[in-house]
Amino acid sequence: MVPEEAARIRLAWPDVGREELDVIAEVIESGMLTMGVRVPEFEAELARVCETRHAVAVSSGTAALHLAVLALGLEPGDEVIVPAYTFPATANVVALSGLKPVLVDVDPATMNLDPAQVEVGPRTRAILAVHLFGRPARLEELPDLPLIEDAAGALGARRGGRVCGSLGLAACLSFHPRKIVTTGEGGAVTTDDDRVADAVRELRHHGWRGDDMPSPGLNYRLADLLCAIGTTQLRRLDTLLAARTRIAAAYAERLRDLPVVLPEADEGDVHGWQAYVVQVDRRDDVLAALRAEGIEAQIGTYALPLLGAYSDQGFFSGAEYAYEHALALPFHTRLTESELDRVAEALGRQL
Ligand SMILES: Cc1ncc(COP(=O)(O)O)c(C=O)c1O
């Protein structure tokens, strides 16, 4: 087929349909679009899936990170360790909380925080570790400090037998449409810690504690409409993960003889498959060539030291390597065999 005539292959396509339409109709007919019964219902389902005592729904993954960091109750200028290669929100929320994000390099092979490079200083108070693209990070090798998991893309993933989202003091999830479970925009904090859960609940709702407001908060609530969509999706999580795992295996089968590094999880882990991110040489050329063929590929994510906000933190070879090589391929449950063939063939022509 002439490339110009080929149908676009979308980067992402949320797995939503009839069931979600039906629950949206129910919520609209109930006349209760926010702060109704759908929020606790969604939170209970999420806590069950993440095997935590609490789940608090908020308006985005970024909001979840922001509130989890605020709930630590740190002093201005305290330091939080953040990987140098991640979606910028991970570090932004630390900076915007009056704290200092201290970047630590990633292992270019896993693209996750490299525990061997973490140095604990006199003001280091916490670690914000990311399970990037759904690959569980090696959290047990980190120093013993309060740990927040950025599990934005790790719903359904497991480190050893344990569920990502339950491995630290708190974890932050995202329900953006590129995630396995989506509510359009949305997020949540999961935790076993009553104090953290209470703090996040208050902070997402202006700081209200009953009739009083002991300290200021925000409006980071997630509407009932969106929670209803989320509950429907969460009940299908196993099926959604199985479908994404199948697509990942189908890519691996097609790409295994090409000079490309394929994504994987450590032995014994379950990958959450938020995205299918390979590493290739000449990434920018390959990305441009795929896009010219109607294939919506994308970079992996960002090397924070290459952004103005974090350019004062020095040079991070692992993050720069990951930034220059990572390539996200179209990844969703509607991809057909022939679309997977097209992506693999287009990639093969460039390598
Ligand atoms: C690792 C990571 N953290 C945080 C976020 C922010 O989530 P949201 O887009 O829901 O605010 C994302 C979103 O892509 C992410 O990938």
Describe the structure.
The protein has 351 residues and is of the alpha/beta class. The chain has 2 domains: 18-234, Aspartate Aminotransferase, domain 2, CATH 3.40.640; 237-350, Aspartate Aminotransferase, domain 1 (Alpha-Beta Complex). It has helices at 18-30, 38-50, 61-70, 89-96, 194-204, 224-234, 237-255, 283-292, 317-325, 337-350; strands at 54-58, 79-83, 85-86, 100-104, 124-130, 147-150, 158-159, 162-163, 170-174, 187-191, 276-279, 298-299, 302-303, 326-329. The protein has a 7-stranded mixed sheet. Helix 1 (18-30) runs antiparallel to helix 6 (224-234), helix 2 runs parallel beside helix 6 and helix 3 crosses helix 5. The protein is globular. It starts with 17 loop residues before the first helix and ends with a helix. The mean pLDDT is 97. The chain binds pyridoxal-5'-phosphate. Pyridoxal-5'-phosphate (PLP) is lined by residues 60-62, 86-87, 89-90, 130, 150, 152-153, 174, 176, 187.
Binned strand content = 15-25%
How many structural domains are formed by the residues? 2
Ends apart, CA distance between termini: 20 Å
Largest sheet, spatial ordering of strands: 1-10-9-6-5-2-4
From the helix content, strand content and strand pairing, which structural class follows? alpha/beta
CATH topology call of the largest domain: Aspartate Aminotransferase, domain 2
What small ligands are held by the chains? pyridoxal-5'-phosphate
- Supply the CATH class of the largest domain: Alpha Beta
| Shape verdict | globular
The number of strands is: 14
Poorly predicted spans: none
CATH superfamily of the largest domain: Type I PLP-dependent aspartate aminotransferase-like (Major domain)
Mean residue pLDDT: 97
Order of helices and strands: HHEHEEHEEEEEEEHHHEHEEHEH
State the share of residues found in helices, binned by percent.
25-40%
Global Rg: 20 Å
Biggest sheet, open or closed, and with what strands and sense?
A: 7 strands, mixed
Number of helices: 10
